[in-house]
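Consortium newsletter contribution from the modelling node. Members have asked for a concrete example of what our holo predictions look like. Here is one, prepared for the 2-acetamido-2-deoxy-beta-D-glucopyranose complex that several groups have been discussing at recent meetings.
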Amino acid sequence: FSCTTPSCLAVPLPADIISTVEFNHTGELLATGDKGGRVVIFQREPESKNAPHSQGEYDVYSTFQSHEPEFDYLKSLEIEEKINKIKWLPQQNAAHSLLSTNDKTIKLWKITERDKRPEGYNLKDEEGKLKDLSTVTSLQVPVLKPMDLMVEVSPRRIFANGHTYHINSISVNSDCETYMSADDLRINLWHLAITDRSFNIVDIKPANMEDLTEVITASEFHPHHCNLFVYSSSKGSLRLCDMRAAALCDKHSKLFEEPEDPSNRSFFSEIISSVSDVKFSHSGRYMLTRDYLTVKVWDLNMEARPIETYQVHDYLRSKLCSLYENDCIFDKFECAWNGSDSVIMTGAYNNFFRMFDRNTKRDVTLEASRESSKPRAVLKPRRVCVGGKRRRDDISVDSLDFTKKILHTAWHPAENIIAIAATNNLYIFQDKVNSDMH
Ligand SMILES: *[C@@H]1O[C@H](CO)[C@@H](O)[C@H](O)[C@H]1NC(C)=O
Ligand SMILES: *[C@@H]1O[C@H](CO)[C@@H](O)[C@H](O)[C@H]1NC(C)=O
Ligand SMILES: *[C@@H]1O[C@H](CO)[C@@H](O)[C@H](O)[C@H]1NC(C)=O
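And here is the predicted structure:
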């Protein structure tokens, strides 16, 4: 995967650490959420005749404040405004809709465009104030006058009070009418039109919290079968549930778990096997999971072990002790499929991200940096060296910057365009082959 970069969109404000990135279902829109509760939507510009290479440029389309900091007076807890996840709803009319969530509250936003405004009302003036009725002597028909394009964002629904613990995932069902939200111990099913009640579909809270050994880390609906969903756990397992089998899916239909290699057992085994993200393939046949050191591909028809395992940064295996001390071992990296499920992408440290080609078994380490995002620059593969044999341009494990981490990434659903969030910068890379065709 060699990349040229049509655009580098960087808004370096300290409060703007990007916390989620999500393309809409055709890839023309890209939404990011940040630590400050803000959502920024980017739109891909159509190709223009004068600038044939301009296709692929994403420009800011709309910015709005989705969540504000709140205070839970009952529990004396501050509720952060940070956006944990954004999910687009399939477009059903001229408006776009998305769901955004922080730790507790999910909001449905509607995004509409307006390029006309009505003029010539009978009872009110242009500012909307009521006219003195004695001055109204004749009736007129109001007309629509063109104006500059305005993007309006309005909150449609607020789904509050559904979660006691922190929400880690939301996922829209393929029936387009329902969605689910998962926290550390429970998963709820909501109807998109109903805000005051949700159905609890998974509850792993033990009667006695002292017996707690496992939490839910991520959850997603199957892309085609509206009755199926998966959730991952801090113990490295995946549970596939079928809502047709029972209303409360406490008994999963399938449990995917890899037996642990006893020779690798250490104090850190359980921490590094915790699944930080799970994604169904577009085909619906496979699941992709990320844990601290690897990405794994699971076949829905094989529960005993993953069909593929890729090492993301195996050189960190000997550094787990210091990564535990600086808390990095608890970082939650996401993972993504490309549009045809043949390539996998996930983030790492030092602003590096990794790609694995499932067919050729080739892999590459790339870096998201200002330098690599100059127009038409080609991303150079990077290498991390362990031990003595160091080549030019190699970087040694000891000089990796662990504060620069790529946790959130997204792949355009149909093209070789990727979005990478590197703390407060968003990088959009496009495959060279692709842009050369235009
Ligand atoms: C994604 O956004 C584009 C651009 O507005 C729109 O044309 C398209 O219909 C959207 N796709 C879906 C599936 O919502
Ligand atoms: C055990 O560790 C080795 C490297 O030290 C690694 O290659 C292998 O995949 C590990 N096994 C499991 C089951 O994680
Ligand atoms: C996925 O990646 C492969 C390998 O780079 C490429 O051939 C294919 O076109 C990609 N699929 C999409 C839909 O981008």
